[in-house]
């Protein structure tokens, strides 16, 4: 397996710039996730790495080799697409074997490798069937097997689970993690699904409109988002935001005028040194808010707007003046729409953003 390095990648389609100066590193033997909304440039980036699109600028290096001018067949990468892309007239065995036959590998070696990878992905009982006779999850396993059998330097996976139902998608996430762990493969994995990115990635590269927004571990991306976009995009639900004013040495006036509290000293110190304007944005994750029917110190009044039961948890939407707070609460505490309640939050989990730039201050 090999390290993949992209430096300053730019790709235009007419007047549209799909990718602009994008740089990233996919470490050897790790899963690097490209996370972004539709149209962010994820697929274009993968297609440039595979050689299916020619970049207008930048360098793509696999291992120690610059591959910009190499044809796709010489790059030694495998591409797994969102759509399964299987040959309908071939059996599962023939689909998996097809990239090996192009390389003139012996019949005995092809049979050995196909059966080995089929056992690894638990599809060895399907080898004689055709795609029309297997499920969507099984078809995606066949597509992955066809990539794996080549033993490429880099795997490129473009939203491979998007077309699967929720249960199979969860199973396939586990399978892909196991596959990568046991083979030590280098994965560059594109997805618009933040839950998929958080659960699978060793590192996440958040991109938006062809630009890299933030790079970090799942924990860094989730707990220390670089800006409002990342904080809102990552998390289910995303972070809550309310306009606020930084006042005095450590006070945050949220609303403004709805409630005021003292920031922890580390947050207050950063704000005193870094803010350019007292106008900021108060941010808090839904799971860091507590709801109570009893008023108490550090709790503020609100009205329940909507309750969304989700099994063992529920999402409670609270209305406070013109703003909404989404709270991730245990299902055991039942609340009703229209009910007056009180909410508190973990002060150490508060995030402060610049209201003009939307960049995180703390």
From TrEMBL:
Source organism superkingdom: Bacteria
PROSITE patterns: ABC_TRANSPORTER_1, ABC_TRANSPORTER_2
Single Gene Ontology BP annotation: carbohydrate transport
A Gene Ontology molecular function term of the record: ABC-type transporter activity
InterPro entries assigned: AAA+_ATPase (IPR003593), ABC_transporter-like_ATP-bd (IPR003439), ABC_transporter-like_CS (IPR017871), ABC_transpr_MalK-like (IPR015855), ABC_transpr_MalK/UgpC-like (IPR047641), Mo/tungstate-bd_C_term_dom (IPR008995), NA-bd_OB-fold (IPR012340), P-loop_NTPase (IPR027417)
Every ABC transporter domain range: 4-234
Keyword flag Membrane: yes
Key words, A-Z: ATP-binding, Cell membrane, Membrane, Nucleotide-binding, Translocase, Transport
Full protein name: ABC transporter ATP-binding protein
One GO cellular component, as annotated: ATP-binding cassette (ABC) transporter complex, substrate-binding subunit-containing
Organism listed in the record: Candidatus Caldatribacterium saccharofermentans
């Amino acid at each position: 397996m090999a390290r993949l390095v992209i430096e300053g990648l730019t790709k235009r389609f007419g007047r549209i710039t799909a990718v602009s100066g994008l740089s990233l590193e996919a470490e050897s033997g790790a899963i690097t996730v490209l996370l972004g909304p539709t149209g962010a440039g994820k697929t274009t980036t993968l297609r440039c790495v595979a050689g299916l699109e020619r970049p207008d600028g930048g360098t793509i290096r696999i291992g120690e080799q610059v591959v910009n001018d190499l044809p796709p067949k010489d790059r030694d990468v495998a591409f797994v697409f969102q759509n399964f892309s299987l040959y309908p007239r071939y059996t599962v065995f023939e689909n998996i074997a097809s990239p090996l036959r192009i390389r003139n590998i012996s019949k005995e070696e092809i049979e050995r490798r196909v059966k080995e990878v089929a056992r690894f992905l638990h599809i060895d009982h399907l080898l004689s069937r055709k795609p029309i006779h297997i499920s969507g999850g099984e078809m995606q396993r066949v597509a992955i097997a066809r990539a794996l059998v080549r033993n490429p330097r880099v795997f490129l996976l473009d939203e491979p689970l998007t077309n699967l139902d929720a249960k199979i998608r969860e199973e396939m996430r586990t399978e892909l993690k196991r596959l990568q762990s046991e083979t030590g493969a280098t994965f560059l994995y594109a997805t618009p699904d933040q839950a998929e990115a958080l659960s699978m990635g060793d590192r996440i590269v958040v991109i938006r409109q062809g630009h890299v927004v933030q790079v970090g571990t799942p924990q860094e991306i989730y707990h220390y988002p670089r800006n409002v976009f990342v904080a809102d995009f990552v998390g289910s639900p995303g972070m809550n935001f309310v306009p606020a004013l930084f006042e005095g040495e450590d006070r945050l006036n949220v609303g403004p005028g709805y409630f005021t509290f003292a920031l922890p000293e580390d947050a207050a110190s950063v704000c005193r040194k870094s803010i350019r304007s007292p106008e900021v944005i108060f941010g808090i994750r839904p799971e860091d808010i507590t709801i109570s029917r009893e008023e108490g110190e550090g709790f503020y009044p609100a009205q329940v707007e909507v309750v969304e039961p989700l099994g063992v948890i529920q999402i409670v939407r609270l209305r406070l003046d013109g703003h909404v707070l989404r709270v991730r609460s245990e299902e055991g505490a039942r609340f009703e729409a229209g009910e007056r309640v009180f909410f508190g939050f973990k002060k150490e989990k508060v995030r402060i953003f610049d209201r003009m730039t939307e960049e995180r201050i703390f």
